Amino acid sequence: MSAEEVKAANGNADAAKDVQDLLAELKGDAEKTETQAPAEEDEAAKEARIIAEATKLGKEQAEQESKGERKPSDRPRRNYRENIKSDFTAQEVTDNHDEIRKQVEFYFSDSNLPMDNFLLKKVGGSANHPVELSLLHSFKRMRRFQPFSAIVEAMKASTVLDLVDNDTKVQRKVPLPESVNDFLDPNVVKVFENEAMGRSVYVKGFGEEGPKTQFEIEAFFAPFGPTKAIRLRRAFDKTFKGSVFVEFDTEETQKKFLALDPAPKWNGKDLIIKSKKEYCDEKAKDIQSGKIKASHRNGGHHGGRGGRGGRGRGRGRGGRGDNDRRDWRERRDEDQKRGFGEDRPAVQKDARGIPVIKSTEEPATSGQKRAREENGASEHAAKKVDVKEG
C-alpha cells in the first residue's frame, strides 16, 4: 500500500473514531438527561406539595380563628328601649326661663356630666369645651322649649354656665377637676357618686311605668325640697323596677325627708324609704352572704339624660346611657387611652407569603390572647337608671 493510501486509511479511521466518540458523548448526555429529569421533577413536585400543604394549613387556621370569634346572632336584636314607657316628648311646649335654665344646668352639673358619655366627650372632660345650644335643643326633653331664642335668653341669667361664641354655645364657669377625662372612668364616677351619697335616698313602691311616670315622680318629690337628680332604676331589659334614687341638694334636706312622720305615700300606698347608703350597705351584706349575686352589667350605673337627640334615646333626666352602642373606633380609642390592649401574635410567613408550618412540639400560642386588663375591676355594681334634676 502506498504512503498516500496508508495516510488516507488512517484519516478515515480517525474520522470514524471521532464519529464514534461523538455518538458516545451524545448517548451519554441523553442518558444523563434521562436520569436527571426525574430528579428535577421530584424537586418541583415536592415544592408544590409543600406549598399546597401550607396553603391548606393557612385556610384551616383561618377557619378555626373565625369559629372562635363571636358572630352576630341571626336572630333580630331585641330593642329593650321599648320597655321604657315614659314619654319625654309628651310635655306641653313652653318658653319658661326657669325650667329651661334648670334643665340645661343639670346637663353640665356634677350630678350628670361625669356620668354622661355623650356630653363628657363634647366637653372634653376637664378641658371644658363649650357645647352648641342647638345640639342641646335637639335633646328630647329640650324640644318642648320654644322658640329657640327663649333658651338663649334663659341662659343669660345662669350663675353656673357662660354663654360664649356670640351666644351660640354654653360652657361651665368652673371646669371639672383635672382627674376627669373625656371618657367614662368608673373610678371618677365612683368619686362623684360617693360625694352625693350623703344627700341621696332610696324609695320603692311606684308600681309599673306609664307614659307620665317620670314626670309624676318628679312632681311627687318637688314639695320635699330641691333635688339634683331623680333616677328611675331599671332592670337589664329596661323595665322599671318601681324604685328610684333621689339626690337632694343638701344632706340637711335629705335628713328632713327621711324624718317625715307620717312618711309620704304614693297613690295612697306605703313606700319603702331609706338612705341610699343604708340601701347599698344592705345589698353589700346580701352579696357577701350569698343571698343575691352582684350585677356586673357593663359596670357602673347606666341611665340617660331625658332624651338628648332624635335617635331613639329618650331617657330620664341624667345618667350615662344604657348599652355601649358607640362606634367601634370610639371604643378602641378609649381603650387605648386607658392603656388597654390585646396582643395577637402575627402568623409567621416565609418570603413567598406562605404560613410557616411549625412542629407539634412547639408551644401552641398562635390562638391565644392575653387577658385584657380591666380598669374597672373595683367598680361597684350600680344600677341602670333614668334621671331627672328637680
UniProtKB/TrEMBL annotation:
<dbReference type="InterPro" id="IPR012677">
    <property type="entry name" value="Nucleotide-bd_a/b_plait_sf"/>
</dbReference>
<dbReference type="GO" id="GO:0006396">
    <property type="term" value="P:RNA processing"/>
</dbReference>
<feature type="domain" description="HTH La-type RNA-binding">
    <location>
        <begin position="90"/>
        <end position="180"/>
    </location>
</feature>
<feature type="compositionally biased region" description="Basic residues">
    <location>
        <begin position="293"/>
        <end position="318"/>
    </location>
</feature>
<feature type="compositionally biased region" description="Basic and acidic residues">
    <location>
        <begin position="15"/>
        <end position="34"/>
    </location>
</feature>
<keyword id="KW-0539">Nucleus</keyword>
<dbReference type="InterPro" id="IPR006630">
    <property type="entry name" value="La_HTH"/>
</dbReference>
<feature type="compositionally biased region" description="Basic and acidic residues">
    <location>
        <begin position="370"/>
        <end position="390"/>
    </location>
</feature>
<protein>
    <recommendedName>
        <fullName>RNA-binding La domain protein</fullName>
    </recommendedName>
</protein>
<dbReference type="GO" id="GO:0003729">
    <property type="term" value="F:mRNA binding"/>
</dbReference>
<dbReference type="InterPro" id="IPR035979">
    <property type="entry name" value="RBD_domain_sf"/>
</dbReference>
<dbReference type="InterPro" id="IPR045180">
    <property type="entry name" value="La_dom_prot"/>
</dbReference>
<keyword id="KW-0694">RNA-binding</keyword>
<dbReference type="Pfam" id="PF05383">
    <property type="entry name" value="La"/>
</dbReference>
<feature type="domain" description="RRM">
    <location>
        <begin position="199"/>
        <end position="278"/>
    </location>
</feature>
<dbReference type="Pfam" id="PF00076">
    <property type="entry name" value="RRM_1"/>
</dbReference>
<dbReference type="InterPro" id="IPR002344">
    <property type="entry name" value="Lupus_La"/>
</dbReference>
<feature type="compositionally biased region" description="Basic and acidic residues">
    <location>
        <begin position="319"/>
        <end position="352"/>
    </location>
</feature>
<feature type="region of interest" description="Disordered">
    <location>
        <begin position="284"/>
        <end position="390"/>
    </location>
</feature>
<feature type="region of interest" description="Disordered">
    <location>
        <begin position="1"/>
        <end position="90"/>
    </location>
</feature>
<dbReference type="InterPro" id="IPR036390">
    <property type="entry name" value="WH_DNA-bd_sf"/>
</dbReference>
<feature type="compositionally biased region" description="Basic and acidic residues">
    <location>
        <begin position="45"/>
        <end position="85"/>
    </location>
</feature>
<dbReference type="InterPro" id="IPR036388">
    <property type="entry name" value="WH-like_DNA-bd_sf"/>
</dbReference>
<dbReference type="InterPro" id="IPR000504">
    <property type="entry name" value="RRM_dom"/>
</dbReference>
<dbReference type="GO" id="GO:1990904">
    <property type="term" value="C:ribonucleoprotein complex"/>
</dbReference>
<dbReference type="GO" id="GO:0005634">
    <property type="term" value="C:nucleus"/>
</dbReference>
